[in-house]
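Lab channel / #folding
Pinned by the channel admin:
"Please post every new chain as: sequence first, then the structure tokens as a reply. Keep commentary short and put observations after the output so the thread stays searchable."

First post following the new format, from NK:
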Amino acid sequence: MAVRIQMRRGTTTQWNNADPILNEGEIGYNTTLAAFKVGDGSTIWSELDYYQTAASITPAEVGAIALTEKGAANGVADLDGDKNVITASKVVFEGATANEYETYIQLGAEPAVADTTFTLPTTSGTIALTSDLSAYALLTGATFSGAITINGDLTVTGTTTTIDTQNLQVEDKNIILGYGSTSDAAVDGGGITLTGATNKTFNWVDATDAWTSSEHMNLASGKSYYMNGTLLKDVSETLTNKSISGSNNTLTNIPNNALTNSSITINGSSVSLGGSVSITGLPSQTGNEGKYLTTDGTNASWATVSSYSAPTLGSTTITSGATVTTISGLTLASGVGTTAFTLNATAELRFADTDSSHYVGFKAPGTVSTNRIWTLPSTDGTSGQTLSTNGSGTLSWSTPAAGAAFSEMLLVGC
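Reply from TO:
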């Protein structure tokens, strides 16, 4: 009697749904793919490999490279007989993150005019070429774009070095100009030039032995000029044949014999001292109010005017256009005014008695909403008349109507 052996079998879906563990040496047959797997007693179905014939195995599955992949898209680069890399496109260096940023080495457009060799150094070091800089452009001096990092010293020889950028950043803290010069005359005119509508220069001028600026120097707020460590305004200097011009100029803390010359002129304040002039011994402090300068022949000092009394204008008239801001202790024997006179802030207009011990007067109310001037009548009224207004600021004498006043007063009490 014949014995029939039948292996474990099923479709791809059935195997994937069950995903069993085959016993060691047990065969499982996939009827959908016509392929089988052999179990090892511990690995699930989905992790086992199918057994294949030698003819069905691809070069990639055994680590071989198919001839059709050499130099093809998504293939590999080829080597010639001299072991040179032959590629029709470019060599790509993958970055740390796959398919994010890569580095390329690529030849320029054909046809090439000559062979180009880029020789790497034989000693340790780093060459950093970024962006699309090519070896040809670097070696031949052709124009190229991109950033260049040079780790080491850079020496540029020639007549003119042009840097066409918006900002120049220099890490070095000292910039040397005129390097190699042995005399001041050789560096005459050296410095910095800023071009604009006109050139703005800061240059060394050998003739004056000084740095010279073509423009004003304006310090920021809170900054000052110093001379040999001393604030410029505190630097001592002897003034000889000097002219102080302008207005609102102040000379303070002038020591003895500091202003001595044959002629001193202060323009702007109309002061001119000519001939043999010597201003010495000025007082060091400002005098009190009312004092004047006097001298004993050697030094000047402040003195008080003796027997001083307030002046009296008498019949002097303050004419139109004159301004008097303060009158204190002044007696007007015969005052005449030709314009309006205002007493501010409810000030009183007082009329004193014979010995000026008492007075009567008028003053404005605390609040006035509209300006008003009353015009007095030109003549006196008769006995019993009163001043009345016409409502427009004109006053006149009028007789009160009959019954306007009470002749009796009745007091009622208990």
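NK: The longest helix spans residues 12-18.
TO: also worth noting, The two ends are 162 Å apart (CA to CA).
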